[in-house]
Amino acid sequence: MIAEIKKFAEKNKLVVTIAVAALLLLIPLILGSPYLLRVAIMICIFVILSSSLNLIIGFTGMFSLAHAAFYGIGAYCSALLSIKVGLPFLITLPLAGILAGLIGAIIGLATLRLRETFLVFGTLAFGEIVRIVIMNWTSLTRGPMGIPGIPFPKIFGFEISNYTHYYYMVLFFAVIVVLLIRRLYNSRVGRAFIALREDETGAASMGVNVFAYKVWAFALGCFFAGIAGALYAHFVRYISADQFGVNESFAILTMVALGGTGSIIGPIVGAVILMVFPELFRFLAEYRMVLYGLILIVIMMFKPEGIAGFKGMFPRDFDMMSIFKRKKSKTEVEEA
User: What is the pTM of this model?
Assistant: First the structure.
């Protein structure tokens, strides 16, 4: 079924593009309900988040469990600059992305020489550090009380204060981010990222600066996460540390794995499914993270290439336990 849809889309790209564009533009009229429109806005935000994490995991083969931390950094940066400094949204938005990207680059310089399990736990530790800093830096972040009263965004004097207007704004940014990542994927830099994922040693022998490209990928992914954080902060108008914890990082990771790592459409599909799923089964809200964990395990065991069916970070012959197995060094092999 999925293969047939992909073949049809490839043969009728123009028709499919026009149909999807029309559907997205008509969403506010189709849904009608403010509640459903709010869900659509959150889907757009998580499309940005999952696509940006895919830039790290799917393109270069690195693992990160700190993506929600950069999401939170962007949210707090934009909120604080808006409230305390009075900067307009069109300035706080890019600044939020830049701050998240710079911190991502610094963390990348410190951790990206780690491999596999060590990298996973390194990013996990950083995410927890960010949460603790937000919780305890009360003079700046108000700690556990959070930041209320975040202003509506204004663009050229026009205040975006209702769901319909906000949907179109977030949709615009989501489309721009996806197109930028698609352009990057097809560029020389994108090919270098893919080479790193497939074979670091081979990429290095061809002149690819492995460490530099890893830092670039990590910084770019964090930049887009910061943009998503700013959009989220001005939408909900109240943020606190518990909105950007490790659970959120696992949710974003599950979206990428479900849709398919290494593809452009995969994270979008994963974000849509896992944002709609909790709304359809709200009686299972208490078990949300358990379900996400089960979905992640099932996907990695039975369909590691994801719904998109693209050979990315988890190909068909992927061994789920391999990331926890220490590879034997050349000396150990000779001794054996």
Answer: 0.86
